[in-house]
Amino acid sequence: MESAFRGRAHVYGNDIDTDRIIAGKYTKTLDLQSLADHVLEDLDPEFRSRLVKGDVLVAGDNFGCGSSREQAPVALKVAGVSAVVARYFARIFFRNAINIGLPVLEVPDLEAASGDEIEIDLEAGTVRNLTRGTAHRAAPMPPVMIEILGEGGLVAYLAKHGTYRLATG
Fold this sequence. Notes:
Layout: E1 4-11, H1 18-21, H2 32-37, H3 47-50, E2 56-59, H4 71-79, E3 83-86, H5 91-100, E4 104-106, E5 117-121, E6 126-129, E7 134-137, H6 143-151, H7 154-160
């Protein structure tokens, strides 16, 4: 994963819970593309038709609240969302996102409208709204989390560093 990337913003409000990200009725599958096909459909039925691989989700307070289901960040990542930027995240969603390799950045003062071009530099901890010409500092992320994201998630990180062995056979 590259540490710097850009995409168009899709902006949503506060308290977007995991049921709005992926409804529970779709979570009884191991087909990740099926999850992606239904991501955010209860919140924004047109989201999938507007999403271009690499786009960025921008939200307000408490993004990912609700259940601890890992399918919520998985659905976003498989759908093609490159990162989620919010004022702050529910802690379990934040950690689940890091674990599956979806960058999440807390930026309390980011102003954006849907369609704005957003540039993210994970290592520098910056988020720029290129459309508005503004730059913002994200809450600091521990270096190990950046490394986990760089490996594509926690399982790949642990496998590479020899502390986890994938089952074979």
